[in-house]
From TrEMBL:
This is Ribosomal protein S5 domain 2-type protein. Residues 124-210 form the GHMP kinase N-terminal domain. The keyword Ribonucleoprotein applies. PANTHER family: GALACTOKINASE-RELATED, MEVALONATE KINASE/GALACTOKINASE. It holds the Pfam family GHMP_kinases_N. SUPFAM superfamilies: GHMP Kinase, C-terminal domain (SSF55060), Ribosomal protein S5 domain 2-like (SSF54211). GO terms for cellular component: ribosome. Belongs to the GHMP kinase family. GalK subfamily. Residues 32-80 form the Galactokinase N-terminal domain. The keyword Kinase applies.
Amino acid sequence: MAGLVPVQKQLADSYGPAAGELESRYEQLRSAFSKTFHAEPECFARAPGRVNLIGEHIDYEGYGVLPMAIKQDTIVAVKKGGDKLVISNVDGNAYKTQTFETDPKQEVDVANHSWANYFMCAYKGAFELLEAKHSKVPEPCGLQIMVHGVVPLGGGLSSSAALVCSSMLAVLAAHGITADKSEVAEFAAKAERYVGVTSGGMDQAISMMGMLGVAKLIEFNPVRASDVVLPPNAVFVVANSLAVSNKAEAAPRRYNLRVVECRLAAIMMTLALGATPEASRSVQTLKDVEPKVAESLGSPGLDACLEAVHKHLHEAPYTHDELETALGVPLDSLYTGSPASLKVLQVAREGGGFKLRQRAEHVFEEEKRVLEFKAVCDGSASADDKLASLARIMNASHESCVRLYECSCPELEELTTKAKEAGALSSRLTGAGWGGCTVSLLAEGRVDEFLQSLRNSFYQSRISSGHTKEEDMPKVLFASKPSSGAAVLQI
Ligand code: GLA
């Protein structure tokens, strides 16, 4: 158990010394709420976005990751009232108000992708949590909701998890329930999958369990977080490539395809290690393969897994026919409960097959990098030596995302290259990739010069062409420190 979600009485509890800057935002939210619903909100719930420092695309394979919460967050104002769920946004032009029935069993309308679908995921998840963990489930009732989010959308900084976690806390708080952080993280992660992305649990876990001043090693099954103190001279700069990564819409060709490829890799490795096709088919993640490798090769650990990958998985993409012959069943039968994965199989039939060896190699190598990153932070080397090691690890992660996991894109490549030219010790994509943000490691004292230089080399032409605006630059390129996790605010 990670402890109860904090209920705070003042902004400083969440935002520390920066609280003063947040007052006007809460006022704006409060006044939008009272204008729309002619009443004051009962409380607020907030949840931050995140930047992942190391451990990309391995959370859904059961492996630990190492993100930090950022100061950009989503705030939800809530009050019980009426007999419907009315979901509004302070930016009502971009995000239209939507109204739903209060039945928590209703389906999320995946065919019509809308921002409010994320609220519906959270609403369903809140009731699922209550049913699983609480003795008394409250009667559903009408809720009035006003949202104010500043985590850039499609930017790889987990705007969707920030919205799902804050909404889930708002629903629970409106019903007078305080839940455990790790329970909310777990149910929010499951609930977000209702939009059709088979994502892991990193984003929701760090949003719930982030902490001012420290990054976190997040581990799964059960979800838990431990502190990672970053070297004092390390500054992480987030830069948006301006290529929008629409995770949900592109899922069958990108994110969900990778999840399917990893599971198929785990199944094919298990089969090659001597299990029956039937036993192999029950394997879910690459982490599940670790004990089987240890048993078969006589040596435990990730290096043995990598040895097994090289020995048992071939480099050429696997075809449907090849996999079905080996497993003795149609691939669809592995995914009967997951329409999102069935869609992947359908789309992949016309695509180039499944690259199992490359994806598995990335996952095991990336987990080694997570463990090494943490060991460097925990170790006793000088701060400068620590920076050099972290930079090497982060660059290797990016290289692997490009070459083995194929989740980069031309804009991310240009941005990471220019970031290194501008003085970053390392620069890598963060989050799912295929657009969105990069995270670069800088030595303290080099940041201003870096920001100016990257602005000139990457952003100036994009400002001139109207791709982004001068006044948006603070949201597009900024240094970030570990910030607080989610909370309910009674202010
Ligand atoms: C997205 C998902 C996470 C994780 C990352 C990639 O952010 O939501 O669960 O898989 O991509 O590391």
